[in-house]
Amino acid sequence: MNEGEKSLNFIEHIIEEDLKNGFSKEDLRFRFPPEPNGYLHIGHASSICLNFGLGLRYNAPVNLRFDDTNPAKEEQEYVDAIKKDVSWLGYKWEHECFASDYFQKLYDWAIFLIKQNKAYVDSQSSDAMAEQKGTPTTPGVASPFRNRSVEENLDLFQRMKNGEFKEGEHVLRAKIDMTSSNMLMRDPIMYRILHKAHHRTNTDWCIYPMYDWTHGESDYLEQVSHSFCTLEFAMHRELYDWFLDQVYDESKTRPKQREFARRNLSHTVVSKRKLLKLVEEGVVKSWDDPRMPTISGMRRRGFTPESIRNFADTIGIAKRENLIDVSLLEFHVREHLNKIAPRVMGVLDPVKVVITNYPEGQEEWLDVENNPEDPDSGSRKIPFSREIYIEKADFREEANKKFFRLKLGKEVRLKGAYIIKAESCTKDTDGNITEIQCTYDTLSKSGSGTEESLRKVKGTLHWVSVQHAIESEIRLYDRLFTDESPDTHKDKDFMEFINPDSLQVIKGFVEPSLKDANIGDRFQFQRMGYFNIDTDSTPENLVFNKTVGLRDSWAKIQQKS
């Protein structure tokens, strides 16, 4: 086995084996089949990267197909959001398809199965059918309607389609095997009555096909060669193949279903139902809230598509489910932003510094590099004046030798500016420091080439000029859940693990170069982390989201606890 073969995942091995056995590479076709009943999340991102990545690897088309068979939960809003997410991740689909495109063909095939005595209309309640289905260790019992005549089944199914019955009065079931060890094969439901408008077909249909009936036949109609889904559908494969057996033409490509394991992300949930609950109960503001594991939420928070693709590539494809630490995703975000994000200065918890020997009313514009990781990023001008803001945590009246920031009688360098020395400080009646008085070394300007500018001081601080600073809203995000796997506790609801401190909104000050920044622009606030401009931002009120810190602070918190 050569090096290239060793690096293949098990799904690629399946494809390679098929190609070796004579399957034509030109007939390879993949699909990503989301249901438009919510926004896509990080788990979907892995599936998107898998299917579209296979398309790129084999130069094969990939369809984007919406499995829109449940009008009670599906909306055009979700369709639009899904398309935006896939495009943002950097992928292009061959055809945009909908299961609803095939409603007529699926109906025609259902008629065919009835005529073949392989499907029948059942008029029992759902409770009765569930009871008759048996258990994994006991066989099911046949419905009293299982042996209806073909003529009666055709008549009832036609009237179901025409809207003559109420929801729940009848269903169409496949006639397979009520004693099968696979309970999914015990006469599964193919159609149910739903008097609800569909986002594409409106009220044209009063019956809607079930997922298992729709999925494989849609793959077949689109001539998808390999249909990849998550592990919970492994037991569905037998039914997938049985349905295909009924309609398959040997002159066409027969789809092959194979399964891979979900990749669950720590400190969050990836169930659409649970994510919807977070939205509906106001735990988060929307599907694209930056705390959400949705692709739109990650985009709004400032994640890059490259970092998500790199994350998906790192965790790979496996046959067993496991929990991936969210820190790994944040590592990839941090790694990519370090390369592309311009460095700027923002002070989030300000205290005023007055440089007493700097002339009042004077200002100067200093030249500062934008990104040392990118030689082509150039530089920008930032203003310096007598009064500046620094972080409160960067000053102490007294501190030990390990504190390399500003303290009384000691020096630090201001990034891109001068060396300053703390002389005194002013406090309020509660003992809080409200102002620090400093002097500066007039010859120590960074980059000036003077002997003083080359002096070594251990600390370098970020700062902004008080006169020029832009007051901004800063949104600091933390884990949405305090537990690493909040929805796996049998005796507790996942909502019990909501982190009450997942969002902190503060006022900070940023340098004036950010005045003309656009929504979505990403920056590194030096020494503070990576931030981007939120969609709520306006020219009058800049709003920044903290995307991720410069290092994994959560790991330190966990170690302490």
TrEMBL record:
Q: Name one Pfam family in it.
A: tRNA-synt_1c_C2
| Residues annotated as domain Glutamyl/glutaminyl-tRNA synthetase class Ib catalytic | 28-338
Domain tRNA synthetases class I (E and Q) anti-codon binding, first and last residues per copy: 460-534
Q: Where is the Glutamyl/glutaminyl-tRNA synthetase class Ib anti-codon binding domain?
A: 341-441
Instruction: Tell me which UniProt keywords the record has, alphabetically.
Output: Aminoacyl-tRNA synthetase, ATP-binding, Cytoplasm, Ligase, Nucleotide-binding, Protein biosynthesis
User: Which GO CC terms are listed, alphabetically?
Assistant: cytosol
Q: Name one GO molecular function term.
A: glutamine-tRNA ligase activity
EC primary class: ligase
Q: Which family does it belong to?
A: Belongs to the class-I aminoacyl-tRNA synthetase family.
This protein is called what?
Glutamine--tRNA ligase
